[in-house]
Automatic annotation (TrEMBL):
Name the UniProt record assigns to this protein: Acetolactate synthase small subunit
Gene Ontology biological-process annotations: isoleucine biosynthetic process; L-valine biosynthetic process
Domain ACT, first and last residues per copy: 30-105
InterPro entries per UniProt: Acetalactate_synth_ssu, Acetolactate_synth/TF_NikR_C, Acetolactate_synth_ssu_C, ACT-like_dom_sf, ACT_dom, AHAS_ACT, AHAS_small-like_ACT
Cited NCBIfam families: acolac_sm, PRK11895.1
Role, per record: Catalyzes the conversion of 2 pyruvate molecules into acetolactate in the first common step of the biosynthetic pathway of the branched-amino acids such as leucine, isoleucine, and valine.
Biological pathway: Amino-acid biosynthesis; L-valine biosynthesis; L-valine from pyruvate: step 1/4; Amino-acid biosynthesis; L-isoleucine biosynthesis; L-isoleucine from 2-oxobutanoate: step 1/4
PROSITE patterns hit by this protein: ACT
Subunit description: Dimer of large and small chains.
Assigned GO CC terms: cytosol
Organism: Pelagivirga sediminicola
Length: 186
């Protein structure tokens, strides 16, 4: 290709353009981080995000191997592909981190979240709340004469849709666990 065919200001074909072609579009990524289950590890991981101005959309942590003393931190974060790569690289450099997996780029993953929703209401609003709960396969885990507490499991989108429908019916309290995720297949 001759120099005349390259537009002015374009370095797409330049030997000096050695950086990968990253997009400026922000994407949501689910990261699974296996760490030692010891005091201060979660603080170090969270400190990495806060210290560099990265946002965490969802965070779940639980011990996965009692004998091996390891825990799994599932983090949902948003950023450009370049920022996501920086996050993964920086997480991998933290000493108690054993493995960092980006479930978003590895292929399809199973992602679920649990939520508890308290809905106050009387009469037709109670009936409608129960009807919608049945459609969404939400379970009643507590009931009084003037309220229900529903338990629902599913994708974040499903939980968000259920909560949106419950708001006009008297949604008074909402607790969400954050996303738990595993890759599909073998």
């Amino acid at each position: 290709m001759s120099a005349l065919n390259i537009k002015k200001g374009s370095n797409k074909h330049s030997a000096y353009n050695l950086r990968p072609n990253f997009s400026d579009i922000e994407e949501s990524h689910t990261l699974a981080v296996i760490v030692d289950n010891e005091a201060g590890v979660l603080a170090r991981v969270i400190g990495l995000f806060s210290g560099r101005g990265y946002n965490i959309d969802s965070l779940t942590v639980a011990e996965i191997d009692h004998e091996g003393h390891t825990s799994r931190i599932t983090i949902v974060t948003t950023g450009t592909p370049q920022v996501i790569e920086q996050i993964k690289a920086q997480l991998g450099r933290i000493v108690p981190v054993h493995r960092v997996r980006d479930l978003t780029v590895e292929g399809r993953a199973v992602e679920r979240e649990l939520a508890l929703l308290k809905v106050n209401g009387e009469g037709e609003k109670r009936v409608e709340a129960l009807r919608l709960a049945d459609i969404f396969r939400a379970n009643v885990v507590d009931s009084t004469l003037d309220s229900f507490t529903f338990e629902i499991t599913g994708t974040s989108e499903k939980i968000g849709a259920f909560a949106d429908l419950m708001r006009p019916l008297g949604l008074s309290d909402l607790a969400r666990t954050g996303i738990a995720a595993l890759p599909r297949g073998a």
